[in-house]
Amino acid sequence: VISKAKIKVKRAQNSREFALISAMLQEMEQKKLAQWFEKDHRTMPWRSDPSPYRVWISEIMLQQTQVAAVIPYFQRFLERFPNVESLSSAPVEEVLKCWAGLGYYSRARNLHKAAQQISASGRFPGTLEDLLQLPGVGPYTAGAIASIAYEIPAPIVDGNVIRVFARQHKQKKITSTRKEVWAWAKEEVFNANKEGTSPRVFNQALMELGATVCTPRKPDCQNCPVAATCLGQDQSELYPLPVKKDWVEIQEECLLLFSGDRVLLSLAKKGEWREGLWDLPRLSEVAGLDGGSEKKVASVRLTVTRHKIMRAIYTRKSNHEVGTDWVTGNNLKFFSLKELPPHGAGLRKSLSKMGLNGEVAPA
Ligand code: SF4
Description:
Elements: H1 4-12, H2 17-40, H3 45-48, H4 52-62, H5 67-80, H6 84-89, H7 92-99, H8 106-121, H9 128-131, H10 139-150, H11 159-168, H12 179-194, H13 199-212, E1 248-256, E2 258-259, E3 262-267, E4 278-279, H14 283-286, E5 295-304, E6 307-315, E7 332-336, H15 345-353
Parallel strand pairs: 1-6
Antiparallel strand pairs: 2-3, 3-4, 3-7, 5-6
Helix pairs in contact: 1-2, 2-13, 4-5, 4-10, 10-13, 11-13
The site of iron/sulfur cluster has 15 residues, from helix 11.
């Protein structure tokens, strides 16, 4: 059933009237969106107590990870670092260890740096401008903290918001940098606030809509609270069209070497990709050490941002005495599988491929 409001919008979409009607409909749809959210939203631990600290940690974790996967990490992180002070005073290695498994470790390093900055200033930043001064905090995270924790009518634009905008306005080509999306999100949250819908509710409702109703495939338009103003719902798959990535292919050759029940790992040095994380050493790093010839035992595929990594895993018989530290510098050490140092998906997937996942310490 096409509502009268939608017919009006369709007729007027190419005229000056469009902007006016669209604006007139905003209040009604915003209220419906807010009501839908208050009734139907998913329970998340950071939603029950949206303090700036908790919103900040959750939003950084959610940047590259799904909600369901983030929840246990968030709870563990908050148990270990319940506030800015405990985070800022901890060694960065401990923060990385608590982050292990979430990937994209620069996020954890930036959290630590930002916590130190906040501790030094004596208070959590309270404006959009001040939030943007924190390491690792861009317009999205600043907008999320400002609106959810402080009720400031600041816009947020993530993949979900982009998709809703694209479908509402029949836009095929959109990226998160598009000024129009930010301008639309800003106007929407500003108007919602003016009409009595809290920025906390409105912004979360918009993202929740994209995550649960206006999904990339098969959006549930029948149950969408803002269907009346949606121009693109009949061909939602066109809005927005997927953006092609420029993939970079990388080949890696790694060594899986045990000393008793301990595995040899290598630490990525400062300035290197994966800095501060431990992984299986590259064959080139251990060439000529300890003798023995390698044998390929497995292949692992990894995708990290736009990198497609094909990793070949080799083993070889070690000649060194079991139990001794066969160390050639601080960046090569043996570790027990039960107490792995900070590491990324590369090590996790490699060990899993070799059937060693059951023994890997929980992240
Ligand atoms: S009507 Fe459909 S396509 Fe439009 S916003 Fe709602 S769920 Fe998305």
